[in-house]
Amino acid sequence: MSLALARLARRRLARDRSAVAALASLVLIVLACLIGPSLTGHPPERIYPDFVRVPPSLTAHPQPDELRPALQRLAFRMRVTLEDVAQEGDRVRLTLTADKPIDTRAFRLLSRSGLFGEARVLERSADDRRIVAEVPIRKRYFVLGTDGLGRDLLTRCLAAGQVSLLIGLTAALAALLIGVAYGAVSGMAGGTVDALMMRLLDILYALPFVFLVIMLLVFFRAGLWLVLVAVAAVEWLDMARIVRTQTLSLRGRDFVRAAYALGLSSRAVIARHVVPNTLGPIIAAATLLVPRVILLESFLSFLGLGVQEPDTSWGVLIAEGSRALESAPWMLAAPAGFLVVTLVALNRLGDGLGEALDPRHQSIVPKGGRQLSEPGDAETGR
Membrane-spanning residues where (predicted)? Predict the structure, then answer.
């Protein structure tokens, strides 16, 4: 692809407002998934037992009616009795009693809970069986609510996005490396070699994907790497067919014949002439491949064949949310929303790239220059 065609493709893509909006949405989602978990104030694995299945809201927790239950649970672990609770702004005054002298080291449980800060002893009896302490309250916000274990759902969705996007990008990269090489070699070889290579593709197409994953699970432990291997093993097939078709249409062109006449090897012709002239369909197909892989991983995780704890993905969160749909619908809506927005944006960006890279749509008209026909210049403008 010539530099002139590349500039024209960028102009076309910039004029497509929906494609630009899709690209901006993807950039925001990727940045949110990368840096968002460190900004929410909740580690992805942090469990808040007092806030199980809390609905989404902008209200800070713990609320006044949630203070006493949370403190009673902590007092039970401290082996003391919570005699009185008095909230004063962002601080709470506790009166604790026990049958034995109270060890102040037990106050560490308050700060470890994530809801309270370091306790400060205000009063204590002579026998240390009664202590009055003041504890600062740490405000917690659950914008998208919490899940069935009390984990912040926003943080979980952002951390799950890292895994889902990683699987999509890795599978797309594998499809590019394997599919482009296989399709280009098959198309340039032609004849019997091409026929045998295509029959191998037909055999691989005939293998049920879910059956392949189940067979892998028989010999290997389920996990992220297994999903990557299973998805990458089959998603290059379509890319190989696309590149083969493009290669068959290019191998009889004059610039390919001229390259052979100059003494270039088949490998050099493929690398320097065939593959660069198929970049348009390749890039568009790769962009559309990413959402398909993400959806496939979500399907596997929904069936329990994909990502396993402690790792998580949008598919895992959707599976958890579907089991709590009646009591906590936000557990399904939150990860499904992230997944839908990502898939729609990727598909729209793929359509926009396909149109921008299609040389049949417009011709190049440089400033003060002649009009260039894109199909011919894609071959000779190298």
Answer: 163-185, 197-218
